[in-house]
Predict the 3D structure of the following.
Amino acid sequence: MSEEILNNSEVESNEPEIKITQKDLNKVYRRSFFDMASINYERFQALGFLNAMAPVLEKLYPDKEDLKAAMKRHMEMYNSHPWMINPILGTAVALEEKNANGGGTANAINGIKVGLMGPFAGIGDSLFWGTLRPILGGIGAAMALNGNVLGPILFLALWNIINFGFRKWSLDYGYRIGMSMLKDMKKTNIIQKVTEGASVLGLMVLGVLVAQWINIKTGIEFVNGDSVINLQEMLDSMVPSLLPLLVTFGIVSLLRNKVKPNTLILVIFVIAFILAFASYFTGIPFIVAE
Amino acid sequence: MSTLFTALLVGLVAGILEWDIYGWGHTQISRPLVVGPIIGLVLGDLQMGLLIGASIEFIYLGVIPVGAAIPPDATTATSIATALGILSGIDTEVAVTLAIPVATAAQLLQIFIWTINAGLMHKADRLVEQGNIKGITKLQLTGSFMFFLQGFIPVFLAVLLGVDAVNGLVEILTVQAPMVMDGFKIAGGILPALGFAMLFVMMSNKKLIPYFIIGFTFAAFFGGTLIAVAALGLGAALLHVNGMNNAAKKSKA
């Protein structure tokens, strides 16, 4: 590396570059099949993402403090279609490789992950779950109803050629895209631009997630003479998704006041159960369970 | 075969099939179309398995998981319907009809696992503080195993206890004590707000908050999809970066 490249990073590393090989990518590929194994309502596939990245992070960050920082990055909330994690993993590997070799790309990684996971989830859900599976499943089930055992076999074979093939190809492709994106770093100092650009995209997608993926609706109704006023409809006519927005920012301010996420989970559970029992015994659906 | 042995065997197979949904691979061995004939093969009636599986497949063909939503658990439902159809000699149609409330009840179990798995995240946070990357893999496999149990336990019990017990349990969960499950459902609706809030705290600085407002507005008021807003976001990101260029030029001049 020549010095003019590094006009932005503080220290030039004297250590030799650590390269990610195809063998490393293949390890990530194998682990990507476990991406949903610890899925949960708080951070969804965060641990699955970190688990898939683990062999690469271990190789890239021999220094324990660097490793901890990288692990922490990938424990942030992540959720997408299970196949679409692969191109995002590929890009994340490229960014981590650059970062470990003094590229300073760490801050761009989560912005890019969030920016991609939302639209990729939309594409994956409609293309693979919504289109491919009903077509293959419909053909297979029609054969099976006639007592033909080839129905399920054909369904499994076609689906898995695409499953294993797409995940392999898109992981490698994501890595190559990530690397070529970072090659331009020689021309201008692009790191800050990538970081802020990714945050812009990520925050806009986060706005959609807050509006559409949090499910808090009230079922409270007021009787006013002959007419019934539905509180949720009233709220929707002012600001749709107002309750999810308020709850999210309530939690944001609690987090900024150093309340631990663990405590918050407990509080959410207590409130949810109080609401559920109160609704059951009073018959008023304070928050609709669905 | 004694009932206990049959129940263990069918439970084990059902657990492995269920595992495919979230635990590993997404190879679709968990689809009713595949589950039916496999359970049928285990119990010695492939044709009945094929028929029940394919019938249930058609019911759930268009039901897909979107975003953070969990669909009814058609896998456990097919395992139970096929096993009981073959073992208790109930009609194919009755077995298929039984599958629908069972799928809804089993879905609640899935919601329960999604909720308690949040605990794994905090165990993981502690491992991150220690830099223990090997522990991360073990933790992920623990989560994976939960989804095996999710198939194994209900199917084992259903085969062991029979049709009446299954109907009774579905009744308790959905009619007599719905508030417990409602509690989990409400918590499941709110919990993503915590994940998004943590993400927001990490990503936002004052300068960039307008972009969050724009994204929210498009989604909430105009029903903009993720893909539409992401395209808009890409445009906004390019504009923002251009703005950074111009600012840099001005400060030089």
